[in-house]
Amino acid sequence: xxxxxxxxxxxxxxxxxxxxxxxxxxxxxxxxxxxxxxxxxxxxxxxxxxxxxxxxxxxxxxxxxxxxxxxxxxxxxxxxxxxxxxxxxxxxxxxxxxxxxxxxxxxxxxxxxxxxxxxxxxxxxxxxxxxxxxxxxxxxxxxxxxxxxxxxxxxxxxxxxxxxxxxxxxxxxxxxxxxxxxxxxxxxxxxxxxxxxxxxxxxxxxxxxxxxxxxxxxxxxxxxxxxxxxxxxxxxxxxxxxxxxxxxxxxxxxxxxxxxxxxxxxxxxxxxxxxxxxxxxxxxxxxxxxxxxxxxxxxxxxxxxxxxxxxxxxxxxxxxxxxxxxxxxxxxxxxxxxxxxxxxxxxxxxxxxxxxxxxxxxxxxxxxx
Length: 369
Ligand code: OSB
Ligand code: MG
Prior knowledge:
- The protein is of the alpha/beta class.
- The protein folds into two domains: 5-115 and 350-363, Enolase-like, N-terminal domain (Enolase-like, domain 1), CATH 3.30.390.10; 121-341, Enolase-like C-terminal domain (TIM Barrel), CATH 3.20.20.
- Helix content is 33%, strand content 22%.
- It is built from twelve helices and 15 strands.
- A seven-stranded parallel beta sheet has the order 5-6-7-8-9-10-11. A four-stranded antiparallel beta sheet has the order 3-2-1-15, with helices on both faces. Strands 4-13 form a two-stranded antiparallel sheet.
- The protein is globular.
- The chain starts with a strand and ends with a strand.
- Bound molecules: 2-succinylbenzoate and magnesium ion.
- Its EC number is 4.2.1.113.
- It comes from Edaphobacter modestus.
């Protein structure tokens, strides 16, 4: 695949609803999109790095400069046969996994288009539909939270994940369980707790949560394994898992029983598949995480979620939960059973809305071979 040009752009897009986690509040997204041109085909990738280095050490501005000065020039010089060749092309650059993923995923999309198969099939997907859950941010009040849950359950979502932090945990789990004793319910602390909180976290066992996501430090395995020994409830790791070796370490140390795979966090589809396979071989279920993506990232998440070991509902939800209007068509929709149908057409199966993206663009840069 000869890449003729790489177009980088930053778009600014307000979220339909503000999203609050233990690390901060997001009301509007600044997003780096990359577009590859190759022999008459075009393919897009979305970088999931945030506006600030709060979820991980990457942010849109570091991703921009690394893409412009290191990654895009390497990709333009190379001649990858497909997405699987890209990690080798980027190997000299350490870290910057979200920046790498945007370009690598676009190459996989391009490969699927050129071979006239679906991206899901190219990745090794086997599911025709994927089970979907939602992640509900910290709310101004408990009443507001219960309303949100009601709306998402009515829409059919199969699992509710509650963002939590000290002071927004036990009482909300208690209230939600009282109203909905049977639903699949989990929580995500985004590293908001410390060792002094172990007894407190252990007290959540009574709420029968499906999992507790990343309760401790973003870069930790050891203390999560200490905590897991104290819990009935499964720990799920998100931030800590950067690659296949991390997944193996976490599984062997019993730091978690479930893994959240985010394709950006692990550096692209190649490593995401490697994490998926390592977990599958060891009987650890995975699910696909979300990073408030536009449709471009969202459809890549859908393709990844079609792999067999994505057996738990992911944070892959409809466009309308995030955006007044998405930048792809058709928009991503979820059935009344809480499922998204995996597209079978060539490539991602969705079309990018160029005019709308142009309107949202605040900076642009083209690099050519
Ligand atoms: O930890 O899963 C997370 C959003 C931004 C950053 C981190 C996380 C999240 C979410 C939202 O939980 C998931 C989504 O996009 O639906
Ligand atoms: Mg998380």
